[in-house]
Amino acid sequence: MSDTLTILLVDDEPLILMDLEMAAEDRGFEYVSAPSVERALALIEGGNPAIDLAILDFTLLHGTDCLPIARRLEQRGIPYIVHSGDLDRSEEGLGELRAVLVPKPAPSDKVIGAALVEMRSGGDHGAPLAAH
């Protein structure tokens, strides 16, 4: 087992994804990235490298959302947070997630930090939380 933390980064906006990748690198973490539900699920199923935590954008390519990814992560016991610009809308399904919600825009280092706090807490939140 590697001592290096691996983060799954899921966002359909290339600049945001790149910024998150750089923030993960700056902290010495490994990362795998996906712009879509299909790619993210393939990375989770592939298991190499094993994913320790994830940062998910809610709305993804082609009008899809992160719900299938979140459910798969939950099944596998992998903590995640949602980093999205859609938090002010009453998105159907967003309320289903028991995740820390980090609104966009937010500094990428803060987003990575929120994911680490979630991982260390074991994802034990009774209801969605908004990180400010």
From TrEMBL:
Matching InterPro entries: Bact_response_regulator (IPR050595), CheY-like_superfamily (IPR011006), Sig_transdc_resp-reg_receiver (IPR001789)
Keyword Lyase on entry: no
Signal peptide span: none
Alphabetic keyword roster: Phosphoprotein
Chain ranges of the Response regulatory domain: 6-119
Modified residues annotated as 4-aspartylphosphate in this record: 57
Listed Gene3D superfamilies: 3.40.50.2300
Superkingdom of the organism of origin: Bacteria
Keyword NAD: no
Stored PANTHER family: RESPONSE REGULATORY DOMAIN-CONTAINING PROTEIN, STRESS RESPONSE REGULATOR PROTEIN 1
Name of the featured protein: Response regulator
